[in-house]
Amino acid sequence: MTEKRYDVIVVGAGHAGCEAALAAARMGASTLLLTMNLDLIAQMPCNPAIGGPAKGHVVREIDALGGEMGRNTDRTFIQVRLLNSSRGPAVQALRAQADKRLYSLSMKHTLERTPNLDVAQALTERLLVRGDAVEGVVTHVGQVYHGRAVVLTTGTFLNGRILTGERSYPAGRAGEFPAIGLSACLRELGFSLGRLQTNTPPRVDARTINFGQTQLQPGSETPLYFSHESRAEADPLILDPRGWINPVYPDVRLDGWRPQLPCYLVYTNPETHRIVRENLQRSPIAAGFIEGAGPRYCPSIEEKIVHFPNKEAHQLFLEPEGFATGEVYVQGFFTSLPEDVQRNMLHSIPALANARIMRAGYAIEYDFVPPTQISASLETKRVSGLFLAGQINGTSGYEEAAAQGLLAGINAARKVQGRPAVILRRDQAYIGVLIDDIVTKEVNEPYRLFTSRAEYRLLLRHDNADLRLSHIGHEVGLLSAERHARVERKRDAVAQELRRLADANLPPSEAVNAVLQRLAHEPLTRDANALQLLRRPDVTYDLIAALVPGPTSLPAEVIEQVVIEAKYAGYIEREQREVERVVRLEEWRIPAELDYGQINGLRAEASEKLLRFRPATVGQAARIQGVSPADVAILLIHLRRTAA
């Protein structure tokens, strides 16, 4: 067969694959994206939603680095909300329901018009490897594609198997073939593989839902976007959906800034739970027919009933899958029970008493590569030039996959260009937390990112992702000079306003206190500057602007940063001091060939874990489970002695 040559080959066109291919191509690398089905690019086989706590932060970070997920979501969402708006800025995050088909079509359109990028339909059967370096891939029909770097983003397709009730069959997703050959090839190359599983809920026909017995969950009344560019309507591909919103949904918001579809809340009840308990023997999950561990944070309805026997009700969200479809996703109703049982369970809920299942839920089990076998650059330790991203690394979630795909694409391109890898620290980004977690911790279940996994949550807010990461996106070539300059102007404006407020003295004069009392605030009893006053919990920027108006009005995004920096200054400074202490360990490199067994005083468990994970830095070593602070101290003594 004719041989093709590329700098970077990406296998799989899910959320990880799309970001990897776009990043590599935009950085000037000739790139090939291979997918089993060109019509299912950026498919959303589970919930067609993007964002949420930590996940929304990641989408903002992807955008700040020059990735596509945020822009594509802004072009295609049917509803968007700001979660945790009544809580502090560290945990606030956007979440959007996307139009499932439009999201896929828009991403395909973006890929096809990107220079340096070819997209082709093919089933990748095996890798070409010479010595310890990858050289390309071979498809199921024998087509050879040569590449200097390969990124595998295989999702749930590696030796995938669907289970529903007592039945199981090979599949990567419902209606799609699994990747059997590639899984076998990885084993032949010496990679150890594990087994994980996840499950999906049924989709029901909106025409058969009694919306009068649900609780309405509307979208935001004010404009919200993931992308820092806020260009939701800039892409001519997306049409105005006002004329073709499905009429079966009540309460559709057509006025205001953006047409939106509502979601709806319902609850399970004791009858639902009785049906589940009486059919547990028919569940492959509960009956133990599934080898792989499932996601603890997103359990099946069977597991919920078993693990929380005294809970009388569980929340379920009814989420439309698009503007022009009647399919409704039953969020929270993940199950692998037979379809007849799923139907009875749904019918036990008043709003769903007549619901018709359009797609039954199912469980899927698949191979993954335990990520002890990759470095923080996402390159494998065993095969040079081979990168892994997404569920193949034991993670779950569209956002986690896209983040890994973006970094894998960046680092694959930089490798073939002879440039060092980009590695984000835990204090720089949630993406850094995600990747550091999977390469320093055991993955025994599908990994999901939470805000609680980050030590520096107040530094890693969703509102400042552009300030944290845009310089990196610009440096690697994914952000334009114009956009980078815009972020730097914002940074300068924030700093200038903070200085202005710190220099603005407010005496306890009659005029100042009259303004404060008119707005129901405590009067001043001694001199203060405007920044000190803004630090009061109940003081808004509008009040400060009334007391010490600036020469020009500031953009809302600048005011937001000024207020957060003022009110959380003490906490932010404390986290930054801790970062400075920890960064010293992150910069202390460990020789790749270090023989931990020869380090006197190092415990056997620590030596075994360090040999297995092969951390690149002392900071990474300190985060490996089983490596104690005493072990780290011994390691540091050894490194100092050998460096002397």
Task: Record the SSE blueprint.
Blueprint lengths: L2 E9 L3 H12 L4 E5 L13 E3 L3 H11 L3 H8 E7 L9 E6 L1 H13 L4 E5 L2 E7 L2 E7 L4 E9 L8 E4 L2 E4 L9 H9 L5 E6 L3 E3 L9 E3 L45 E5 L2 H9 L22 H7 L7 E6 L6 E5 L7 H9 L9 E3 L3 E6 L17 E3 L9 H19 L13 H11 L24 H12 L4 H23 L1 E2 L3 H9 L9 E2 H5 L6 H7 L8 H12 L1 H18 L17 H10 L4 H5 L6 H15 L1
Parallel strand pairs: 1-2, 1-9, 2-6, 9-20
Antiparallel strand pairs: 3-5, 4-5, 7-8, 8-9, 10-11, 10-19, 12-19, 13-17, 13-18, 14-15, 15-16, 16-17, 21-22
Summarize this structure briefly.
The chain has 20 helices and 22 strands.
Overview of the molecule:
By secondary structure, this protein is α+β, with helices and mostly antiparallel strands. The chain folds into four domains: 3-198 and 366-476, 3-Layer(bba) Sandwich (FAD/NAD(P)-binding domain); 203-218 and 262-361, Elongation Factor Tu (Ef-tu), domain 3; 482-574, tRNA uridine 5-carboxymethylaminomethyl modification enzyme MnmG/GidA (Arc Repressor Mutant, subunit A, Orthogonal Bundle), CATH 1.10.10.1800; 588-643, GidA associated domain, C-terminal subdomain (DNA polymerase, domain 1), CATH 1.10.150.570. Helix content is 35%, strand content 17%. The chain has 20 helices and 22 strands. Strands 1, 2, 6, 7, 8, 9 and 20 form a seven-stranded mixed beta sheet that branches. A six-stranded antiparallel beta sheet has the order 14-15-16-17-13-18, with no helix packed on it. It has a four-stranded antiparallel beta sheet with strand order 11-10-19-12, with no helix packed on it. A hairpin with a 2-residue loop joins strand 7 and strand 8. Helix 2 runs parallel beside helix 11 (465-476) and helix 3 packs across helix 4 (100-112). The chain is globular. The termini are far apart. Mean pLDDT is 92; it is low at 232-236.
